[in-house]
Amino acid sequence: MKAIICTKYGSADYLELQDVPKPTPKDNDVLIKMHATSVTASDVLMRALDANLMFKIIIQMAMGFGKPRNPILGMVGAGVVASVGKDVTAFKPGDDVFAYGSISMSKMRWGFYGEYMCLPEDWNIAHKPENLTFEEATAIPYGTLLAMHVMEEAIIQPGQKVLIYGASGSIGTMAIQLARHAGAEVTAVCSSRNFDMVTSLGAAKVIDYTRDDAIDQLEHYDWVLDTVGNNKTSPLKDASKTALTANGQYLSVDKGTPTTSRDKFLRVKELAEQGVLKPIIDRCYSLENMVEAHKYVETGHKRGNVIVTIGT
Question: Which of 178, 174, 189 minimizes the C-alpha distance to 221?
């Protein structure tokens, strides 16, 4: 099969399209013929290894030193079940499915950047929502699960005010929709070119973080949700940390370690089927153009998700 191989950490140019052996499912495995995957910020971080020394060591302890032990990256995707192991009962060949390769820091499966991918039946794999295409289903899990992580401590009540910093990214676009679903009044922070998009998702107010008067537009919020983490900041972001009501809280995606349990994954599926979550796709690339897809995500200016189609 064809797959994208990360030959070593560093530049996106170290990603190469190669022919590799097709995986063989074990007794409890589901073999998926992939139709779509996504280039996430985490994919770019792992490939580039662009982090402080301690984090670089942690990443390489988990993934391999010098280059990934599993050179096929990718942590999310959707496709059709090609075959199943003899002990599999929940899926059969021909089923449309979508999947997420991470359950916790100690239980991660990379490998979605190829024509086929194997996952255990009890991993984060489920039948694809019928109301979504393969590309749309691929665009749902990463952002939603990390938005849930940011919001884990936030018990949002109807009518509360929520500020979402980084509202136009894959996590932010899902955080808007989850906060609106909880009944919050959402203020979205992003660049002005994304105002129409975040408003369409339910943001009642918008702030352009690049404007000189951005800080003056802040109110007091019950929850401030930072969906970009410590690697990106601005005067507005610093000011937002204290733009809180008496009992307000500032929550960051960098706080704690994300857990993406199967229960959470199935909740994502449920919300997608109900139409609560609308997938946002910025651009689609072919598998052959994976290097360009990584370079685009690396600019830090994508809107929602970047999808890579496979074999279609």
Answer: 189
- DSSP string for residues in 189-230: EE-GGGHHHHHHTT-SEEEETTSTTTGGG---EEEEEESS-T
Enter the pTM of the model. 0.93
Instruction: Report DSSP state, residue 291.
Output: H
Mean pLDDT for all residues in the chain: 93
Contact between residue 171 and residue 202 where contact means Cβ atoms under 8 Å apart: no
In the CATH scheme, what is the code of domain 144-252?
3.40.50.720
Determine whether 216 is exposed, middle or buried from the number of CB atoms within 10 Å of its CB (0-12, 13-18, 19+).
Answer: exposed
Q: Does domain 2-139+279-309 have CATH number 3.40.50.800?
A: no
Is residue 94 within 8 A of residue 73, CB to CB? The reply is no
Tell me the C-alpha distance between 79 and 287, whole Å: 14
pLDDT category of residue 52 using cuts at 50, 70 and 90: low
The C-alpha angle with vertex 294 and arms to 116 and 284, in degrees rounded to 5, equals: 65
Q: What are phi and psi of 79, to 5 degrees?
A: 180, -155
